[in-house]
Automatic annotation (TrEMBL):
It comes from the Bacteria. This is LysR family transcriptional regulator. SUPFAM superfamilies: Periplasmic binding protein-like II, Winged helix' DNA-binding domain. It comes from Streptomyces peucetius. Pfam families: HTH_1 (PF00126), LysR_substrate (PF03466). Keywords: DNA-binding, Transcription, Transcription regulation. Gene3D superfamilies: Periplasmic binding protein-like II, Winged helix-like DNA-binding domain superfamily/Winged helix DNA-binding domain.
Amino acid sequence: MDLEVRHLRLVCAIAEAGSLTRAAASLRMTQPGLSAQLRRIEAMLGGVLFERRPAGALPTPFGELVLAKARSILPGIDELLADTARAAHDLTSPCRIRVGSVGAPLLGHLILAVRESLPGAELTSRCQYSPVTLLDELAAGRLEAAVLGDHPEQELTPRDGVVFAPLVTEPVFALLPAAHTLVGGTRADHPVSIAELAEHDWAVPRPDGDRTREYWTSVCALAGRRPSTPYEAEGRQLIELVRAGLAVSLCQATFLPPPGVVVRPLAGNPLWYRHILAWRRDGPLAPHGDTLLRAVATGYLKTCATVPVYARWREQHPHAARTRVPDAA
C-alpha cells in the first residue's frame, strides 16, 4: 500500500479528536475499521504514531514528526485542489462532460442519458472501486456526475455543491461455484443463509478504498459467524476464485454470473447495497437531473429483468428494492 493524502488526513483527524472513537465518529467510520487503517499506516511508515491510553490517543515522538510534516503538506495540497477545481470549472462546458462510476450496472444507462440530454457533448468516463474517491472528484469539480454506492449505516456523507439522488437499495446475493454443495439441486431462487456460507472459505475485496468488506464482516458478526477469508481479490480475479471452487463470496443482485458461477439470494436478506446517482449542483447536468435519474432508473429496471434470480426475487418481494423514478414533467 502506498501512502496517500487521505492517510495523512486520517492521522491528523485522530490527533485533533484525541481518541480513535471520536475520530471514527467524525470520519463516519467504525472504531475497528479506523484502528485497522491506522495499523496499516503505521506499518507503512515504520513506527507507532499514537500511544493508546484509557483517556485517548496521544502522539508518540514519531507521531509528532509525522503530524508536523502532514500539517505542513496538507494546506498546499488543499490549495492545489482548490486551484485545479477552479481551472477545471472554467474549462467545463456543456460540451465537455466527465462521469465516473463504481462497479454497478448503471454507467451505460447514465452515458446514454447524457448523450440524449446533451447530444453535442464530448463525453468521457472513468471507474473507481471507491465511491469516496469519486465523490471527492465530483465535489472538486473533476467530474460532472457519478454513479456511487454504499451500505446501511455506512452511508456516504453528501458534499456541498453535490446533488445526491438515491436510486434503489437492493439486496446482496451469494456468489457460489456452480458445483458447490450449497447449490445442489435447489431451485435458482432458493436462499442460502449467512451461517451456511460462513462454513466455507471466502474471497473478499481489499479493505482499503471501499467499506464493503467491513460491512460484510459486521453482518456476519451479528449472525455469530466469522468466516475464513484467505483470498483477497476484486472483479475478474474474485470471480475466478469462486469459479475454481476455492471460495464463496457475495455480489450485487444485478450481477449476471458467467458459466461455472451461480447466484443465490440470502435467507432473510441481511445485506443491502444502495445505488446513488450524483451530479454537481452548478454543473451542466443540473438542469437535466430528473431526466437523467428517470432514464437511469428505467435502465436499471430493464437490467433487473435480464437477471433471472433477481427478477424472481423482485416478484416475491414487490415492496422491497423499490426504484425511484421521478414523474415526467
